[in-house]
Task: inverse folding
């Protein structure tokens, strides 16, 4: 079974600053994936970034990077140069099991202040 | 490329009534998922289809929830009878399904259900 823990219910950041959203995971699978999704107030889930458990380098996608520390079972999302449009819920998820289903955390509400 | 389509976007019903949601995945996506997202929580998988077969329905309350994916394309999720605790957003997602643990899922806009 997989479990995702996001300990920050809410985070605030000033526009143009960087912010780190925390995620720790627990899984018994030897091979797994870690995902971050963004959910604006409109409700759709938007894929941001993916990290494979055997990937040697931390994943990056534009302003998003994933700080993957396998020994600590953490997969924190770093958003650089925050923008007002980054205000949303952010969910960390892991894929595992024979059907690679996603298990989500409870999310972190990020508010970017002007 | 068109995204995942869902309808209706909003639905309000009274408890003990029935309701159905429809999902049309991205063309060519073999895997289809239905999630339930209760306010303040992350999505929880209800059922996963691979083509028109069920892969995982371990968290589907089968006494009241049912789902089908005829012909391996569109899918319908039904609740009968609804309870107050079924109030949630129901998200449909699809993926190619052939990439193992890298299984990027594309989500639809969701259906917000309110049970009174």
Result:
């Amino acid at each position: 079974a997989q479990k995702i823990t996001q300990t920050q219910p809410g985070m605030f950041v000033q526009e143009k600053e960087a912010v780190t959203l925390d995620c720790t995971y627990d899984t018994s699978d030897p091979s797994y994936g870690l995902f971050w999704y963004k959910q604006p107030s409109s409700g759709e889930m938007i894929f941001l970034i993916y990290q494979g458990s055997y990937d040697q380098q931390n994943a990056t996608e534009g302003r998003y990077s994933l700080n993957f520390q396998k020994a600590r079972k953490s997969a924190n999302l770093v958003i650089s140069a925050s923008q007002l449009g980054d205000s949303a819920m952010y969910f960390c998820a892991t894929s595992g099991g024979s059907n690679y289903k996603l298990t989500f955390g409870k999310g972190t509400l990020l508010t970017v202040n002007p | 490329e068109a995204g995942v389509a869902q309808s209706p976007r909003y639905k309000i019903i009274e408890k003990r009534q029935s309701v159905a949601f429809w999902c049309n995945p991205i063309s060519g996506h073999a895997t289809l998922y239905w999630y339930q997202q209760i306010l303040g929580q992350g999505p929880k998988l209800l059922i996963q289809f691979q083509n028109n077969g069920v892969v995982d329905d371990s968290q589907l309350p089968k006494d009241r929830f049912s789902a089908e994916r005829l012909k391996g394309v569109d899918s319908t999720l039904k609740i009968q009878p609804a309870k107050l605790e079924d109030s949630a957003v129901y998200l449909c997602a699809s993926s190619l399904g052939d990439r193992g643990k890298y299984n990027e899922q594309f989500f639809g806009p969701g259906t917000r259900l309110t049970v009174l």
Notes: Chain B is about 0% helix and 45% strand. Residues 14 and 116 of chain B are 5 Å apart (CA to CA). The interface with chain A takes residues 33, 40-45, 48, 50, 55-56, 89, 91, 93, 100-110, 112 of chain B (CB under 8 Å). Chain B has a mean pLDDT of 92.
